[in-house]
Amino acid sequence: MKTSTLKIALLQDKDRGGIEKAAAHTERLIRRAAAAGAKIICTQELFLTEYFCWKQDSDFFNLAHPVPCGITDRFRKAAKRLGVVIVAPMFEARGSEVFHNTAAIIDADGTCLGKYRKMHIPQDPGFEEKFYFAPGDLGFRSFQTKFAPIGVLVCWDQWFPEAARLTALAGAQIIFCPTAIGGIASEPASLGALQRDAWLNVQRGHAAANTCYFAAVNRVGTEHGTRFWGSSFVCDYYGNAIALAPPDKTAILYAECDFDAMEKHRQMWPFFRDRRIDAYSNLTRRFDD
After folding, report:
1. Which of 78, 130, 261, 267 is the most buried (most CB within 10 A)?
2. Catalytic site includes residue 223
3. Is 257 among the residues known to form the active site?
4. Domains assigned to the chain
């Protein structure tokens, strides 16, 4: 059921000290967001656990689950009961050797529409993700939910314009980006501020270049030397922030998306029409040398 306007909610939260505690707390937040009129609700990246990628430790593989699993069933029931769409990022196990950073997309009738596996995997001090996650193999997708077609990217994907472009080309009118990003606490605060600004700016550019809404949800708090900078936001098709959460507090962030206005804007600035698809073949090369 496509509507002209749609209220969405981002759950900016912190580590809750265990999977069951995090799941129960997130369910409460989802109920609050649904009661406030939100129809699509998205959690932060790896919302069930701490950000365990701060070091390489094989014991953390015990935090992974198949997707779907009992936890996704729990949120499927919540989605059906409340009549909302839920985007739930999890640590996915495929057997005993292959693991992914995955988001399950659950429709308002409780149906699991599918999943998105994080495509770009970072490797930096405090972000040892290549030890844990295989690159996604499901591509960039749009999911036709009850309320709107949406796409999902996960954290490091947000820096790559190709990811947002392909997701928008697949039909997504809102791109959700669950995230766990911040600055290393031992580094100067001024550097962290510059990095946060870059994070905001690149995603705002994705919204403007693809004439869609973009919704990024981050975690807060300091975990093992990383100070997550919150600042979850929703921006419109001009790249303007229409909702912004604080950098240091948990929050439910709400925003209204107007699809009729977005369609009119697309007719005025038809970027997809004017793409030179015959001239972009070098994008498939690592470096044009």
Report:
1. 78
2. no
3. no
4. 5-274 (3.60.110.10)
